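Review form for a predicted model. The reviewer records the input and the model, then writes brief findings.
Reviewer: anonymous (R2)
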Amino acid sequence: MPDRGTPHAPVGRRYFPICIKILGWLLANFALLGLAVAAFALFQFHFGPESLLEGRMGERLERTGAMIASELQHTPKSDWNSLLSCFSEYNDLQTVLLHADGRILAGGPFPIPPAVRDRMLGLSRCCGPATGDGLGFEEQGCAHRFLLRAGTPERTWVGVRIPPSQPADTGGEPVFLLFSCRSLFRSGFLFDWTPWVGSVLAVTGCSVLFWTPLVRGIARSIHQMTDAAAQIALGRFKVRVEEKRSDDLGRLGASINHMASRLDTLVSGQKRFLGDIAHELCSPLARMELALGILEQRGEATNASYLQDVREEVRHMSNLLNELLSFTKSEIGPKPQLQPVRVADAVACAIQIENPPPNALKIELASDLVVRADPALLQRALCNLIRNALRYASHAGPILVTAAPAWAAVEIQVTDSGPGVPEECIPHLFEPFYRLEPDRDRASGGTGLGLAIVRSCIQSCGGTVRARNLSPSGLELTLALQPGS
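Model under review:
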């Protein structure tokens, strides 16, 4: 059914569900914590880019160095350049085999920054020669691999020291495999994103799973309260929200229920009071009309005009009381018994009651359309719509009455070609005693209850009513009811 009362975001403002906002702030919080931990580790423990070599990246670098050293040991020295060139092209980086002092044995040639040479010399002094079979080297409290940024333009340099006996023909001096690339994070060989991405996804997934029940509970409660507030704004005070929560949202839900209950009591009491007053005034007005009739028959002719003015006032009061009785009956009367009603029959009955002038109405509706409604309430609503259109817009052309299926409802429309109403007045058209001044004041005969009765009747049938201005002129009133079949 259209117009169920769910509020929309204000014009120009985008709507984001609260669950998305909470999860977004959660992820932003994780990112901030990650940056804080990284900064703390950098300044407190002096972690730097070279710390990456302590993990899987260092192990892969060691294995690669050992593998290349083994290949070079079994390859003639004349083919070393070709071997390193193939490795460089495959991994999209520059590779060179050189002594600690910068003398190149294979690969390159390309300039080695002084900072890289100094680092290799430092590692060569720190690590002693191998013992035993001579295939390895002993660590003396230092690492035998390094990572730094140096050069102009600046590049990333990663080096690993290999045993001087692997490969052969190195003169027994310290030998390094040096890898160079523009950025460490762009090299799939030097930096593996897989564990980092996997860790981030795992932490994010676990956090989302952990927070989802809380976020869903909050979002569900807020959604219920939003719908309840929208229903209350439409005058449906029977709505209630769950009060199972024991936090602030639970207290807010209880307050909303209490407010709806109090409003229901106050509004029902007000309507019942109006109905009682209207009912009690019917008898005095009837006696006044009888007395006026007697006075007109027995009074002097000079007083006829005064008696006619009084009769007009009494007739106006009588019409107002009849409208009040209809309004209160539709609002606080017994719950209607909904049943299938043919739209064509209801429209025909309304036309017969209102008895419009010839050619004042134009009917366009299918004979087989059926809605679920109370026949009396639907007929009363149609009578008021047709009467309202005839009173204020019949001079502009025939009134068009149409009906057609629309989504999950059947819409009955009464359209005129009159001047319409100011756009800011449309939301108030169905409020009791609301009249446009000066166009529809007391002089025109309006009481301000006609459209309020229409809304009350249609809501009692489980439907909705809305109005909109047409271009270039005209007003369209739409009744939306559930299909009857």
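Findings: Residues 1-11, 130-142 have pLDDT under 50 and may be disordered.
Further findings: Residues 419 and 472 are 9 Å apart (CA to CA).
Recommendation: see findings above.
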